[in-house]
Specification:
The structure holds two protein chains of two kinds. By secondary structure, chain A is of the alpha/beta class. Chain A has twelve helices and 14 strands. Chain A has helices at about 10-20, 25, 60-65, 105-120, 150-160, 180-195, 215-225, 240-245, 255-260, 265-305, 310-350, 355; strands at about 30-40, 45-50, 55-60, 75-85, 90-100, 140-145, 165-170, 200-205, 230-235, 250, 360-365, 370, 380-385, 390-395. In chain A, the strands form three sheets. Chain A has a five-stranded mixed barrel. The longest helix of chain A has about 45 residues, at about 310-350. Chain A is elongated and about 160 Å long. By secondary structure, chain B is an alpha+beta fold. Chain B is built from three helices and two strands; from the N terminus they run ααββα. Chain B has a two-stranded antiparallel sheet. In chain B, a hairpin with a 2-residue loop joins strand 1 (about 55-60) and strand 2 (about 60-65). In chain B, helix 1 runs antiparallel to helix 2 (about 25-50). Classes of the chains: A alpha/beta, B alpha+beta. Chains A and B meet through helix 5, strand 7, helix 6 and helix 10 of A and helix 1, helix 2 and strand 1 of B.
Chain lengths: ~400, ~70
Amino acid sequence: MAEWTLSVGELNEYVRKKLAGDPMLRAVRVRGEISGFKRHVSGHLYFTLKDETSRVSCAMFRQHAVGLSFQPADGQSVVVTAAAGLYPVSGTYQLYVENMEKDGMGDLFEKFERLKKKLQAEGLFDPAVKKPLPVMPKTIGVVTSRVGAAFRDIVRVALHRNPHIRILIAPCAVQGAGASEEIARAIERLNADGRAEVLLVGRGGGSMEDLWAFNEERVARAVFASRIPVISCVGHEIDFTIADFAADARAATPSNAAELAVPEIAELSIRLKQLKKRLDSAFSGMVSQKRLRLEALMRSACITNPVRMLIDEKRQRADHMLTRLNGRMREILAKKKTELTFLNGTLKGLDPKNVLNRGYAILHKDGATLSDAVGILPGDRLTIEMKNNYITVTVEDISGKEQP
Amino acid sequence: MNKYTYEEGMQKLETLIQKMESGTLPLEESFEAYQEAVELYKELSQMLESGEARILEIMDAGDKDITEEVT
């Protein structure tokens, strides 16, 4: 055996390399209780993780610590994800923590999966029992916090799409102890009220713990029992809750839920008007088709049908129907005729010959009608037209007229 | 309150129009269908435009109008 003598530094460096080269120690999950927690002014966190028999030092650098969703403290049970490494200065090894979550989250996931399986087996998520959403609800119900952004978003979107909408809010806590009971009761309250045609149940984004109330069995059962169709909208796109599975429809966010529940009135209006156009053209098409058929029937019935009675009857019916069809035409014609008579009277009033009846005369020169004396010279011959006669005269003098 | 929902009305209107378009209806019935369809159209348009926006808080104790607070 060779006799090697190492410096302390060399030894520590050797061990450090050994540790760093171990793939398992590069990313290891460790559960333990925090003790000796210190937050350095630099933002780095230092603490010890311990269980009943052992302890290990931990460092969590600032860039990782800023992402924490909770305030670590002594006595908390946590799970860290870390790399194990040697700290050469003291010769001790420690955990370089990259992520830390409160212990119990793992339990939550398990609980989630267990409940999901149970309710699925009971048929609460069965697509066949999902209720269709109403096309044009006049009243929507909202189950969320009265003060949250979710409610404001829903109101804004819903009113924008339909300025006549009625919104019923059944306020409830959406996180914390008792929230699931409040959510369920709010759903039941709106069902008892009965006016809402669709319910929007949810809240804005948050941590898994914040959203947890929507994973409780009580809420899932209330959603399932609702006679009114339910749209769930919990958190963001990525968040799925038990309530989402039990709901009749799932929206990614509260705003999306409002879009799903409330159709744009302007759009519906356009569709309705298109239908009216189709109705009108169907009617005029029908009328002309009937008329053609009636005319054909009349011709064929008169000429070819040997059974007299049948001919007469068909003819009578045809006559009757044609009369009905033509009735409206005649009305229009009569109206047009009245209009024409009236127009004729107006035209007559404009006829210059009418003026002669009232004692006025018209001057002609060389067949043209004169309206002033421009170009007329003494000695010119003019013709005066009166009601019954023409008089030919010679011009003696032309003078201007004083302007009134 | 209407005797039918908006979607029921739309469906009925569509059916009436389809019947008229098929050209198989007797004259009398065609007129009736047309009249019914026009009436339906008027009612549906009215359904779209009627009603005033209201936001109500539903509590166990009763409703509270909060339209002004929210909008």
